[in-house]
Specification:
This protein is an alpha/beta fold. The chain is built from nine helices and nine strands. The structure holds S-adenosylmethionine.
Length: about 240
């Protein structure tokens, strides 16, 4: 049996996706509120920065993976009109339903697909842009998912991976205190779910750092990879070009 990690726990590989699903089933109704509270609104700025770097143009085909409640899809959709499309996807139906309802409330109707980023149901070379925000960390086989992202992109297409990363050393102590003392309590008070927010803090620590992830994106077939550190490395945006 192959083992992997779920936060700081070692679990059977076949068990990880089920546990991740339980986390997002639990947090879905309060996900957006918690994002604003936990990051003091910063997640909006990180996502806006990713959209600016994506530089979406009319006519582009965009795939948003692990799209959840739809922040990126919502920002990208008007920018690819006329003639473009944003496909909003996630492995978790509860998260995707929250996202779809929210998009509809904004008058935005997009194709919504429940799918696993590790096995994408799309043709080779179909998309100009693939985005994944705060999703890669939760995937069991990250290398496989990155290869799938490469496969569905056209040559010259762009991948954007926005994800928590490794913070600059002077901030580490304060960040650890916040992550392991404040976050789980916030999760308990607001979402009645301490464990999911402990998982969040732990999964960030287990996620590859900036340079390791850069190497993984390259290994998946992206000839050029840029890394943008945001908020002293709390978050990093990896931009890969399929060559
Ligand atoms: C932290 S949320 C991010 C949602 C949204 N992208 C955002 O930035 O607010 C992570 C999402 O990744 C999804 N996810 C986890 N594993 C996945 C997989 N293998 N394929 C697709 N989505 C996955 C979860 O269901 C969840 O909705």
């Amino acid at each position: 049996m192959t083992q992997t990690h779920f936060g700081f726990q070692t679990v059977d590989e076949r068990d990880k996706a089920r546990r991740v699903r339980a986390v997002f089933d639990s947090v879905a109704p309060r996900y957006d509120l918690m994002n604003d509270l936990m990051s003091a609104g910063l997640h909006r700025w990180w996502k806006a920065y990713a959209v600016m770097v994506a530089n979406p143009q009319p006519g582009l085909r965009v795939l948003d993976l692990a799209g959840g409640t739809g922040d990126l899809a919502l920002a990208l959709a008007p920018k690819v009109q006329p003639g473009g499309i944003v496909v909003h996807t996630d492995i978790n139906e509860t998260m995707l339903r929250e996202g779809r309802d929210r998009l509809l409330d904004h008058g935005v109707v997009l194709p919504t697909v429940v799918c696993d980023a590790e096995r994408l149901p799309f043709a080779d070379g179909y998309f100009d842009l693939v985005t994944v925000a705060f999703g890669l960390r939760n995937m069991t086989h990250k290398e496989l998912a990155l290869r799938e992202m490469n496969r569905v992109l056209k040559v010259g297409g762009k991948l954007l991976v926005l994800e928590f990363s490794h913070v600059a050393p002077p901030l580490q102590k304060a960040y650890d205190w916040y992550s392991f003392h404040v976050l789980p309590r916030l999760g308990r008070w607001v979402a009645n779910d301490e464990a999911s927010y402990r998982y969040l803090a732990e999964s960030i620590r287990m996620h590859p750092d900036q340079e390791t992830l850069r190497a993984m994106v390259r290994e998946a077939g992206f000839g050029h990879v840029d890394v943008h550190n945001l908020t002293a490395g709390v978050v990093a945006l990896h931009v890969g070009i399929k060559t």
